[in-house]
Amino acid sequence: DIRRLRDRRTDISRQVEELLADAPLLTVLTSMPGIAARTASQILLAIGGDISRFKDAAHLAAYAGIAPVTRQSGTSIHGERPARGGNKRLKNALFQTAFVAIRLDPESRAYYDRKRAEGKRHNAAVMCLARRRCNVIYSMLRNGTLYQPGGTHTTTTTTPPRTETTPAHAPRPRQDTTHPRIKRT
């Protein structure tokens, strides 16, 4: 009976991969180090296959639960902590791809080592890498481009860049950090 269930599970996984093999976004995602077909399909299924649902990379990160949340009470701000909510499957997929990328991608390894040197613990450094990779994934899916090493992907932000006429001490407009509305059927 267990063998039959395993065979059924394998068959379903194969069918999902065959269905997604025709999706051009699968090729886009698998071009990134640390993302194979199964993980790419998990990411696509978790976001619903439509990246336009998310206003920017920050919204995708908030949906995944990898955007930091500010701890505050009244006027006291106590720093940031990892989000506890979000889409658990997407969060897990992004975390796993970041973990694999540490071994496979020298650029990811350098970023991870830099975060560790800043004093972050292992899981926090991997989560920082997952957040960074989430930005790149958003850009790749939005533009339909393959992974380009060296950080040449661009993401849109809701905060305008500073200009020479804007003093450095001037406050920047606050970013909207709300989750995108999810249409459920």
UniProtKB/TrEMBL annotation:
Ranges annotated as biased composition (Low complexity): 149-169
Pfam families noted in UniProt: Transposase_20 (PF02371)
Residue ranges occupied by any Transposase IS116/IS110/IS902 C-terminal domain in the UniProt entry: 28-112
Biological processes, Gene Ontology terms: DNA transposition
Region (Disordered): 145-185
GO MF annotations in UniProt: DNA binding; transposase activity
Protein name per Swiss-Prot or TrEMBL: Transposase
Source organism per UniProt: Bifidobacterium thermophilum
